[in-house]
Specification:
Elements: E1 2-7, H1 19-22, H2 26-39, H3 43-49, H4 52-56, H5 58-78, H6 84-87, E2 88-93, H7 97-104, H8 110-127, E3 134-140, H9 144-151, E4 161-168, E5 171-177, H10 178-188, E6 195-198, H11 211-221, E7 234-235, E8 242-243, H12 249-258, H13 263-271, E9 276-282, H14 287-295, E10 301-304, H15 307-317
Parallel strand pairs: 1-2, 1-9, 2-7, 9-10
Antiparallel strand pairs: 3-5, 3-6, 4-5, 7-8
Length: 318
């Protein structure tokens, strides 16, 4: 039997989230140092001390969440001898978590991924400096099949609203101009909407309004020193299908900026594979684990965000 490893995205950051992986573990500290050297910024201090408002800024949250995930992976491998690329059948990451999955699979180095996420976060943050005009909202209790027709009239011009994240059969995130997003929320009230949650993000991510970011990030990706084929297939956000070949990595990462995160299809893919006996979410948080269990109550899901959880996992594997 095999494992699938999943990696969270923006919104899971919290002050102190990497403490368990840095205190007392040299391999964890080395990851943080590598990330800091790559981005020329003391990200570990911000993770440890905050303030949360600064940590939540897109250009900080993205490398911070990535660094925490890679510290956990490195400790599994270096301190406990768990070779993730030999145990995993698939990996997948939600939005920025895709970079952690690609790095863990060997497709991109820690330094290159950290630099890309710092730049990616900065471009995304500054693209929509007038946040009052834009919005991202999580809609609970409705599916993309319900919301799809509601966003259909808002696909161009000054009233854009699209499905940014198809997270599950009962959670969809919409993104775009605030007026259009609010109109869709209003209509969703008559279609089974349970709750609408405004997301604390810097702009309308995964929407056509990020097109200029995609153009600029395309140029940034062209300067990455090297990519490698994945040692473990990564289920990509925009295709919900396995990816291994380095030749397609650049275009996939550009497309992800404006494309929909097809997470529901990604989880369906993993759950329909009979070889996978456990899905493991790497730190920080348990957002993806909880969402998966709501869709597949019988699924064997585990979260690794503390040393105790890692040791319990290693014991179960031995």
């Amino acid at each position: 039997m095999a494992k699938a490893f999943i990696f969270p995205g923006q919104g899971t950051q919290k002050v102190g989230m990497a403490a368990a992986f840095v205190s007392g573990f040299e391999s964890g500290m080395r990851v943080m140092e590598e990330v800091e050297n790559a981005i020329s910024f003391d990200i570990s201090r911000m993770i440890n001390e905050g303030p949360i408002d600064e940590l939540t800024k897109t250009e900080n949250a993205q490398p911070a969440i990535f660094a925490t995930g890679m510290a956990c992976i490195t400790i599994l491998e270096k301190e406990y001898g768990y070779e993730i690329t030999k145990k995993a059948k698939y990996m997948a990451g939600h939005s920025l978590g895709e970079y952690t999955a690609l790095c863990a699979s060997g497709a991109i180095s820690i330094s290159d991924a950290a630099r890309l996420l710092r730049i990616r976060g900065g471009l995304m943050s500054k693209a929509c400096s007038d946040r009052e005009n834009y919005s991202m909202v999580a809609l609970l209790g409705v599916s993309s099949e319900v919301i799809g027709p509601l966003v259909a009239p808002y696909q161009s011009g000054r009233n854009i609203c699209v499905i940014a994240n198809d997270n599950s059969e009962s959670q969809v995130v919409i993104s775009g101009h605030r007026k259009a997003v609010m109109s869709v929320c209003e209509e969703a009230n008559y279609c089974g909407l349970v709750k609408a949650i405004n997301l604390n993000v810097d702009g309308p991510f995964h929407s056509p309004l990020m097109s200029q970011v995609a153009i600029e990030f395309d140029e940034v990706l062209a300067n990455v020193s090297s990519y490698s084929n994945c040692n473990v297939p990564v289920i990509m956000n925009t295709t919900a299908s396995p990816f291994t070949q380095k030749e397609n990595l650049h275009s996939n990462l550009v497309g992800q900026i404006t494309g929909r995160v097809r997470w529901r299809e990604t989880i369906d893919f993993l759950m329909n594979d009979k070889d996978i006996d456990e899905v493991i979410e790497i730190a920080p948080g348990r957002t993806l684990s909880k969402m998966l269990k709501r869709s597949y109550s019988e699924a064997n899901v585990r979260s690794l965000e503390t040393v105790a959880q890692i040791e319990e996992f290693i014991k179960a594997e031995s």
